[in-house]
Amino acid sequence: MKVMITGGSGALGQSLKDVFKDAFCPTHKEMDITNQVSVKKTILSYKPDVLIHAAAFVDIRGCEEDKKKAQEINVEGTKNIVNALKELNNGCYLVYTSTACVFAGENEKYYTEDDTPAPKNYYADTKLEGEKIVEEYSNYCIIRTNFVPKEQWKFPKAFVDRFGTYLFSDDVAKGIFEVVEKREKGIIHIVGDKRMSMYDLALLAGSKNVGKMTLDDYNGPPVTVDMSLSTKRWRKYKIG
């Protein structure tokens, strides 16, 4: 089985490489997903049986400030992947990593695969648009999840009033591996079995000196307050 992973330098990409040992993970220089010719050349040359599309521009503030970049990477990049796979026409199984942020997250609701997305910012808009592009391909699975790498929190503070059923990136990678084994189709939520705040997540990741903050301290684009997901199609995972 020939597996190809985009976004191999990111947190999830690094974890995916640990579970898909022989996967081909092209660098940006080897394949620029915003370049249609580059994507087509690489995919038609490698001929993957499985392609996990994890490359994305995920910075919420960054997406809001540079919508052109967000559109090029998250939307056009996904379109380039799908179009190349259609031309390859070998039945390649496509896994697209999406986000819990496609939901509004306002009422302490555990969102399942059946719930209707309602994005609150441009990042989430582009990821949902990517989902719709992927749904035009016949052999796909959309993974919605919410994760961080298990490492020192990269910000000085973390929210005590933003919540989610978080996982670490290696948990999500293992979940994706299991989904790929079964070749599940449609939308699947890979979620943790416990709702927690971002602050609790930071502590669990090993950050001892992270401070507390609330949404009242925040000044930026609209964010999903409660990113808690549940699943009707898959199992829940214990974080870590």
Q: What is the helix fraction of residues, given as a range?
A: 25-40%
Distance between the termini: 28 Å
State the CATH topology: Rossmann fold
Please identify the structural class as seen in this structure.
alpha/beta
Number of helices: 7
Shape: globular
In which order are the strands of the major sheet placed?
A: 1-2-3-4-9
Fraction in beta strands: 15-25%
- Summarize model confidence as the mean pLDDT: 97
Looking at CATH, the homologous superfamily is: NAD(P)-binding Rossmann-like Domain
* Assigned CATH architecture: 3-Layer(aba) Sandwich
Largest sheet: 5 strands, parallel
* Number of domains as seen in the coordinates: 1
**Radius of gyration, whole Å:** 17 Å
Description of the structure:
- With 240 residues, the chain is α/β, with parallel strands linked by helices.
- The protein has one domain (3-147, 168-191): Rossmann fold (3-Layer(aba) Sandwich), CATH 3.40.50.
- 34% of the residues lie in helices and 17% in strands.
- The protein contains seven helices and twelve strands.
- It has helices at 11-19, 36-46, 60-65, 67-88, 122-134, 169-182, 198-204, and strands at 3-6, 50-53, 93-99, 140-145, 147-148, 157-159, 163-164, 167-168, 186-189, 196-197, 211-213, 226-227.
- A five-stranded parallel sheet has the order 1-2-3-4-9, sandwiched between helices. Strands 10-7-12 form a three-stranded mixed sheet.
- Helix 5 links the parallel strand 3 and strand 4.
- Helix 1 (11-19) packs across helix 6.
- The longest helix has 22 residues, at 67-88.
- It is globular and about 50 Å long.
- It starts with a strand and ends in a 13-residue tail after the last strand.
- The mean pLDDT is 97.
